[in-house]
Write a structure and sequence with these properties.
Blueprint: E1 3-7, E2 10-13, E3 18-25, E4 34-39, E5 46-51, E6 57-59, E7 67-72, E8 77-82, E9 91-99, E10 102-105, E11 109-114
Parallel strand pairs: 2-11
Antiparallel strand pairs: 1-3, 3-8, 4-5, 4-9, 5-6, 7-8, 9-10, 9-11
């Protein structure tokens, strides 16, 4: 059974930092591109960052230069380091991958940035 479990969310003041983690099980983690998405109230889910099997990265325009995605294949874990957080970063953050041609999502972790 495939599982993605996020952790690390919380409440932080603007300008602060958080690090999200996503622990994966039931998949060949090192062979999967891993993604972080987020969804704010009343808005569509958007791609925040991606990391490929060769650790190439891609970021949404709104987080470039502030967020860093990384992976530890030995721990089957992907991270999202978020710096210089802004109130508009407030959202539920989801870990995602495609496994056997199916979208697979974690349960999400809430990030709230106060002004």
């Amino acid at each position: 059974q495939v599982q993605l479990v996020e952790s690390g969310g919380g409440l932080v003041q603007a300008g602060g930092s958080l690090r999200l983690s996503c622990a994966a099980s039931g998949i060949a983690f090192s062979m999967n591109t891993m993604n972080w998405f987020r969804q704010a109230p009343g808005k569509q889910r958007e791609l925040v960052a991606s990391i490929t099997t060769t650790s190439s990265t891609n970021y949404g325009d709104s987080v470039k230069g502030r967020f860093t995605i990384s992976r530890d294949n030995a721990k089957n874990t992907v991270y999202l380091q978020m710096n210089s957080l802004k109130p508009e970063d407030t959202a539920v953050y989801y870990c995602h991958t495609v496994y056997l041609y199916r979208n697979t999502w974690g349960q999400g972790t809430q990030v709230t940035v106060s002004s």
